[in-house]
Amino acid sequence: MIELRDIYKVVGAMTPLYVALVLGYSSVRWWRMFKPDQCDAINRFNCYFIIPFFTFQFTSGVDPYAMNFRFLAGDVAAKAIAAAALALWAKFSKKSSFAWVITSFNLSSFNNTLVVGVPLLKAMYGAAGEDLVVQSSVIQSLVWFPILLFMLEFWHASSCSDDDVVDEEKPQPISTDGDGSNNTIVVVVDGGAALAPLNLRSTMKQVGAKLGKNPNCYACALGVIWALLAKRWDFEMPSIMEGSILIMAKAGSGVAMFSMGLFMALQEKVIACGVQLTIYSMVLRFVGGPLCTAVGSIALGLRSNTLRIAIVQAALPQAIASFVFAKEYGLHANVLSTAVIFGTIASLPLLIMYYAILDMLR
C-alpha cells in the first residue's frame, strides 16, 4: 500500500522540474528578461549541447546484453495496437484522414522519457524504473522517431502536387498502390486523379537528412555503441571523459524544463487548438497510450512492477521532439503544442493517480 512518504518522494522528484518550468515562463511573460531571439538561442543551446550530453549519459549506462526484451516487446505491441485501431478508424470513419492518423499515433505513442520519465520512475520504482524508462528512450529515439518522420515525409509528399499543398484542415482520402519494380507508390486523391509518384528512396533520403540534423540521434547511437563495447569488454569510461560529459549532462533536466517554460511564455495561448481538440489529445496521451500498453504488456506476460512501470511510462507527458517534427512539417502543430504544454502541467496529479491505482491492484 502506498504511503504518504511514497507520494512525497514522487512530488519531491517532480517539483524541481516545475520550478525550472515556472522560472522560464516567468522570465519572459512577467519579468521580460528575454526576447524571442534570445529564447531561440537558449533553446538551441539546450538542443545542440545540453540534451545530447544528457541523452548520452543515460544511454551509455544501459547494459544492452541485459535489456528487458519482453518489456520492449510490450512497447512494440502497444504501438501495433494503436496503429491497428487508427487504421480501422481511417477505414470506417468518414471524419478520418491520413493526417489525423499520424497526429493521433503521435499523441498516443511518444512521451518525454528522459527529462520527466527518469526522475519520476526512479522515485516510484527505484533503479529498475530508471533502467526500463531509459531502455524505452533508446528504442523511441532509434526506432519510433524515424518511423514517425517517415510517416510525416510520406504525408508531406502525398499532399503536394505541382508545388501546391493540400489544405490539412480539409483532409483527403488516400489510397496507395505499390510498384515493387521501381519502389514507387502512387497516391490517389479524391478517388481519381493520381497526384504524384512517391519514390521511397527519395522519402528515405529526406528522413535520413532530418535525422542527420538531430544531434539527439547521434548521442543515442553513440551511447548504445559505447554501452555495447564497455559491457562486452568490461571497461569503464575514463574519468576525464566522464567529467566532461557530466558537466553538461547535469544541466539536462533543468535547462530542458526552463526552455519549455520559455516556449510556453511565447505562445499566445496555453490551449492553442480549442477545448475539444485539447480533450481529444489528453485522452489519447493519458488514457489511450497507457491502455494500449496495458493490453500489449499483459498479452506478452508482463507482471508485477515491470507491468506498472510500462503503464506509467506510457502516461508520461508528450515528447517535445514530436511537436518539433509536427511544426516542421506543418501538421497540427497547434494540437501538439497544447499536448506538450498542457500535458506537462497536468501530468503530475495524473501520474500519481496511476501510481496509486496500480499499487492497489497488486
From TrEMBL:
The keyword Membrane applies. Belongs to the auxin efflux carrier (TC 2.A.69.1) family. The chain crosses the membrane at residues 7-28, 97-120, 132-152, 215-233, 245-265, 277-300, 306-326, 333-357. Keywords: Auxin signaling pathway, Membrane, Transmembrane, Transmembrane helix, Transport. The keyword Coiled coil does not apply. InterPro entries: Auxin_eff_plant, Auxin_Efflux_Carrier, Mem_transp_PIN-like. May act as a component of the auxin efflux carrier. It is a multi-pass membrane protein. GO terms for biological process: auxin polar transport; auxin-activated signaling pathway. It comes from Salvia splendens (Scarlet sage). It comes from the Eukaryota. This is Auxin efflux carrier component. It is found in: Membrane. One of its GO terms (cellular component) is endoplasmic reticulum. GO terms for molecular function: auxin efflux transmembrane transporter activity.
